[in-house]
């Protein structure tokens, strides 16, 4: 529409100027006929004025202003227009006024004669024929513009279909085929768009599909391997359990050599059984989503402390709970018990391994957005290798014979609460693990 306005308005103004110039030229030709013969008949003079479409013609030659042709003027002259000094802005303004003014007026128009036939030519004329001609010309311009607009719209539609819609539909088709059968390589897109942005989108989709296909294949292999390992671990656990029963009888033997080697055999079989049970528990991946509610954290930690003190037996390990019983936090009581139990047990076993007295302290720090639970011990600290793969299954074990599944499972359970488990510090003076439990429900 803006283009239509920018084209239509100057065109109308130009047509009006040409129309007035043509009337001046006709009037000049009629006056030249009079100059050729001073004795024109009145009927011929009226015919010349009618053909020129004017009432009067004034021609200035040699500084003399002379009325060449004249006829009665029906109305007084309302306006005078000098085409010699009119600017483009004034021509456009006069054209718009004339186009919207329906009153038939008499106007005076002045201009320069063609071919230097004088100094000035001046005519008087009606505005009705001018306005009618302008309207007719405007309708033709609008009709032509409409045809051009329709043609342009068709070309634009075809161009959009070819260069945008068709490539986008191709991308959508590849996505649908890939979603239906990710294992089918024919669903992976081949970038061929000519538009730069679409080509970048196709290349990004290609990279995503390639990486996802690789990940799906790897996951399938790992699932198959995990199933095989679970079966082997299950059978091996049954075999080792039977062997563990036999070792109980071996320990009662009176043979000194058997009595000396039996404890080592029992420990080895016990560690093997624990490894199989841990592998099966991790491989099942059946941890339910936490049932969140307000639980008494102090009571949970009291139960853990009593259990670990019994497990410590004669070892000089102290379990200190500094969390008041009335304190409540948002979480799943059973899962929080397992997580804190795992961390406290690791700390106790680390202290027992040193053969020295020690202490495990469980404390709570409250903030506006979260609760922070700390499990601190006075043990020897974590070795560098354990810190590198602390929460990685089968790689983050700290004590000898450990599988590293405990911390991995603990981290997974806390992530289900929207929180995290982190190693705050470790060293010869002891180790501190920190659990973050968010207060909110995660809603925005």
TrEMBL record:
Substrates-to-products reaction catalysed: ATP + protein L-histidine = ADP + protein N-phospho-L-histidine
Keyword 4Fe-4S: no
First and last residue of the signal peptide: none
Top-level class of the enzyme under EC nomenclature: transferase
Gene3D superfamilies to which the protein is assigned, alphabetical: 1.10.287.130, Histidine kinase-like ATPase, C-terminal domain
SUPFAM superfamilies named among the record's database cross-references: ATPase domain of HSP90 chaperone/DNA topoisomerase II/histidine kinase (SSF55874), Homodimeric domain of signal transducing histidine kinase (SSF47384)
Transmembrane segments: 141-164
Pfam families: HATPase_c, HisKA
Name the record gives this protein: histidine kinase
């Amino acid at each position: 529409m803006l283009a239509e306005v920018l084209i239509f308005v100057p065109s109308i103004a130009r047509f009006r100027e040409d129309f007035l110039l043509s009337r001046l030229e006709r009037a000049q030709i009629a006056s030249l006929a009079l100059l050729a013969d001073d004795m024109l008949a009145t009927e011929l003079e009226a015919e010349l004025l009618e053909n020129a479409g004017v009432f009067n013609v004034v021609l200035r030659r040699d500084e003399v202003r002379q009325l060449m042709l004249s006829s009665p003027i029906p109305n007084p002259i309302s306006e005078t227009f000098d085409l010699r000094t009119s600017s483009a802005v004034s021509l456009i303004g006069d054209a718009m006024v004339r186009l919207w003014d329906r009153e038939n007026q008499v106007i005076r128009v002045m201009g320069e004669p063609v071919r230097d036939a004088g100094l000035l030519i001046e005519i008087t004329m009606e505005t009705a024929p001018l306005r009618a001609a302008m309207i007719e010309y405007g309708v033709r311009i609008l009709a032509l513009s409409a045809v051009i607009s329709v043609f342009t719209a068709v070309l634009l539609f075809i161009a959009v279909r070819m260069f945008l819609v068709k490539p986008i539909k191709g991308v959508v088709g590849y996505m649908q085929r890939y979603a239906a059968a990710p294992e089918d390589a024919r669903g992976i897109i081949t970038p061929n768009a000519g538009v730069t942005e679409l080509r970048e989108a196709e290349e990004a989709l290609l990279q995503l599909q390639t990486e996802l296909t690789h990940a799906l294949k790897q996951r399938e292999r790992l699932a198959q391997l995990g199933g095989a390992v679970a079966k082997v671990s299950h059978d091996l656990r049954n075999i080792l359990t039977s062997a563990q029963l036999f070792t109980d009888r071996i320990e009662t033997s009176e043979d000194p050599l058997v009595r000396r080697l039996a404890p080592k055999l029992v420990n080895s079989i016990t560690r093997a059984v624990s490894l199989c049970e841990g592998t099966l528990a991790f491989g099942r991946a059946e941890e339910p989503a936490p049932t969140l509610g307000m639980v008494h954290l102090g009571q949970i930690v009291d139960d853990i402390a009593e259990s670990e003190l019994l497990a410590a037996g004669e070892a000089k390990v102290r379990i200190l709970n500094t969390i008041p019983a009335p304190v409540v936090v948002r979480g799943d009581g059973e899962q929080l018990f397992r997580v804190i139990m795992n961390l406290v047990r690791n700390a106790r076993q680390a202290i027992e391994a040193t053969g020295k007295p020690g202490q495990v302290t469980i404390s709570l720090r409250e903030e506006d957005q979260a609760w922070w639970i700390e499990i601190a011990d006075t043990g020897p600290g974590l070795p560098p290798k354990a810190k590198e793969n602390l929460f990685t299954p089968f790689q983050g074990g700290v004590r000898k014979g450990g599988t590293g599944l405990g911390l991995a499972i603990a981290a997974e359970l806390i992530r289900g609460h929207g929180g995290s488990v982190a190693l705050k510090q470790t060293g010869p003076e002891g180790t501190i693990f920190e659990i973050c439990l968010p207060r909110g429900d995660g809603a925005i």
